[in-house]
């Protein structure tokens, strides 16, 4: 199933499974057709706080969408009662990828499809599950990428969302001709709007940091990072691997929120802050216009950052732009307790 040491470890864990032979056959059957998945052994954190070493299938599955093929990263966790209880499936966005929540995928990446809800062995198995995932994801892709733009576009290099490395995604501007002029009348105005909005999103990272530092003052941040280190690095709601050195610098140096990007602060606030009001519609969901709790504004910053990363051509009508601008502007002012009002006004001029 893997390398010799991994095989021994996997075999040892399988011995703890109530139906080891059936589980092994089920895994091998799935891997025979989906060779970019690999069995791994990891600690799974349940909602009640308990943990258990479980097998999972980790990797990518090929999904066809509108004539093109995409490799969708997933992880399939197997309970020790497999195959008599359904697996737990998550999509795992990599760097520059974002979850596109829909009827089949929750905002945290958890996959909820009928095949899992009515799972019943022997009519249900891993190979059948993966085939259904390929079909479902081909109808409604669960991820989108900030770097999926056409090669005709160029990268905005003079501005970026944040000084933190995670925020240096490929934010692209409208197509240009070889001479550097815009390709359609009026596109220059759209590009100017894009650049203005990019600066506002960049300022929103500053506002989020101000709020983050209030929630996690220096010493409390260090204590929380130390107490939750395993969860943050390896748990179900772990951060991306490239953010681990930012949260846990070499030489035992304390982490500095100035180095955190929006995604990192959002993850820590959502999963480890105990003294903030959660969003009115719940984490991962768009707040209503009248919702103005701190959690709502944290969500607004995440949503507008993700929205910006998708933009290739800024084709929204001016009213739409103004609504988004006002929504993010007010969130910045509220989260910064008015300290960034002047900077917002300068961008609005």
In short:
With 349 residues, the protein is of the alpha+beta class. The protein is built from 12 helices and 6 strands.
Summarize the topology.
Elements: H1 4-14, H2 20-33, E1 37-45, E2 51-65, E3 68-78, E4 88-91, E5 97-99, H3 114-117, H4 126-139, E6 143-145, H5 187-215, H6 218-227, H7 229-234, H8 244-247, H9 262-272, H10 294-310, H11 318-335, H12 341-348
Helix pairs in contact: 2-4, 5-10, 5-11, 5-12, 9-10, 10-11
Helical segment tally?
A: 12
Overall geometry comes to globular
The portion of residues forming beta strands comes to 5-15%
Between the first and last Cα atoms, what is the distance in angstroms? Answer: 61 Å
In helices, the fraction of residues equals: 40-55%
Q: List SSEs in N-to-C order.
A: HHEEEEEHHEHHHHHHHH
The total of beta strands comes to 6
Alpha-beta classification: alpha+beta
Average pLDDT reading: 81
Low-confidence stretches: 147-187
Radius of gyration: 22 Å
Strand order of the largest sheet: 1-2-3-4
Query: Main β-sheet, in a few words?
Result: 4 strands, antiparallel
Oligomer: single chain
Q: Total domains, how many?
A: 2
């Amino acid at each position: 199933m893997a390398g010799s040491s991994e095989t021994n470890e996997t075999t040892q864990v399988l011995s703890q499974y109530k139906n080891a032979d059936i589980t092994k056959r089920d895994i091998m059957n799935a891997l025979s057709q989906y060779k970019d998945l690999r069995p791994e052994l990891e600690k799974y954190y349940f909602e009640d706080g308990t943990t258990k070493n479980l097998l999972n299938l980790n990797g990518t599955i090929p999904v066809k969408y509108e004539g093109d093929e995409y490799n969708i990263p997933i992880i399939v966790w197997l309970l020790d009662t497999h195959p008599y209880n359904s697996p737990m499936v998550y999509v795992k966005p990599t760097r520059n990828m974002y979850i596109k929540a829909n009827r089949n995928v929750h905002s945290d990446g958890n996959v909820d499809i009928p095949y899992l809800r009515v799972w019943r062995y022997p009519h249900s198995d891993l190979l059948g599950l993966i085939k259904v995932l390929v079909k479902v994801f081909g109808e409604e892709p669960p991820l989108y990428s900030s770097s999926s733009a056409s090669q005709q576009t160029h990268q905005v290099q003079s501005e970026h969302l944040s000084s933190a490395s995670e925020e240096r995604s490929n934010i692209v501007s409208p197509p240009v001709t070889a001479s550097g002029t815009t390709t359609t009348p009026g596109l220059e105005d759209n590009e100017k709007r894009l650049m203005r909005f990019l600066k506002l999103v960049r300022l929103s990272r500053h506002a989020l940091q101000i709020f983050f530092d209030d929630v996690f003052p220096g010493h409390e941040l260090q204590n929380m990072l130390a107490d939750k280190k395993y969860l943050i690095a390896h748990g179900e709601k772990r951060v991306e691997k490239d953010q681990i050195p930012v949260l846990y610098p070499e030489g035992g140096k304390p982490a500095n929120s100035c180095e955190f990007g929006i995604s990192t602060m959002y993850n820590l606030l959502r999963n480890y802050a105990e003294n903030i009001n959660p969003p009115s519609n719940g984490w991962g969901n768009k707040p209503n216009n009248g919702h103005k709790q701190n959690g709502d504004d944290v969500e607004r910053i995440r949503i507008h950052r993700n929205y910006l990363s998708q933009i290739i051509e800024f084709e929204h009508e001016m009213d739409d732009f103004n609504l988004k601008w006002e929504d993010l502007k007010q969130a910045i002012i509220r989260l910064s307790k008015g300290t960034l009002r002047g900077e917002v006004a300068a961008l609005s001029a």
